[in-house]
Specification:
By secondary structure, this protein is an alpha/beta fold. The protein has helices at about 15, 20-30, 45-55, 65-70, 110-120, 135-140, 185-195, 205-210; strands spanning about 35-40, 60-65, 80, 90-95, 120-135, 145-150, 155-165, 165-175, 175-185, 200-205, 215-225. It folds into 2 domains: about 10-135 and about 185-225, Rossmann fold (3-Layer(aba) Sandwich); about 135-180, no CATH class.
Length: about 230
Amino acid sequence: MGEYMYEKLSSVYQELVGTIQGSQYFYQLAKKYLNGKLLDCACGTGELVSLFYENKYEIYGFDLSAEMLSKCCYPHLVKQANMIDFHYDTKFDGVMCFCDSINYLLSIEDITKFFTNVYQHLNNNGIFIFDMHRYETLLQFTDEYYQSGIINDISYEWQIEVQNDLLLHTFVIDNVAEQHVQRIYSLSVIIKLLQNIGFTVETLNEEILGDYALEKEVLIAYKKEN
C-alpha cells in the first residue's frame, strides 16, 4: 500500500467511494458483535470512528494516508500507521477493518503479518470483524469498468481493470492520476490463515448481511486462548 496513493483521491473519496450510508451500515453491523475498547484499522477519513465515538464508544483508528486522516472530525482518536506493523500500548476488545482494506495487502506474507498483529492487540475473547472482495469480483470486472463526472467542482475518472487476481484501479482527479492495486484472495485461504494464527472463524451469511453479501465476504474471528 502506498502512503501517497490517496493524495488526490482523498478530496472526493467520501462522495465517490465511501458514503455516509455505508458507514452507517458498517456501524450497525459491527456494534452487533463488538463492545468495549475498539480499533478501526485502515479507518480512512474516520467516518466509522466518528460514529462510534459520537455514540459513546471508546474507539481509536489508524490509516496509512495522512491526507485521508486530515478529513477526520476527531483527529485525537486517529494516527498514521501501516496495517502490517501498527502498534498500540494497549489491547482492544474489538477490532474492525472494512471497505475491503485487506485487499490492499498484496501478499500472503503481509496479510499474515496483519492478522498476527490484530491477534496480538486483542484481549482474550476479543473479536475481529472485517470484509473483503468476493473472489467472483474478478469476473465482475472482466469487461473494463469506467465512470467519470464532477464532484464538488472536482473532475474525476475511475477505471477498473483485471490482471490475473489483481484489481487495478486508476483514478484521475483534476487531471492527476493515481493507481490503486488490490489482490483478490479466496475465502478458504483467508480462513486457513486466521486459523493458523489461533483465531476461531465464522462467515456471515446473506440473512445477516442483506445485499452486501452479494458484493463482499464478511468474516468474524474470535481470539479464545486457554
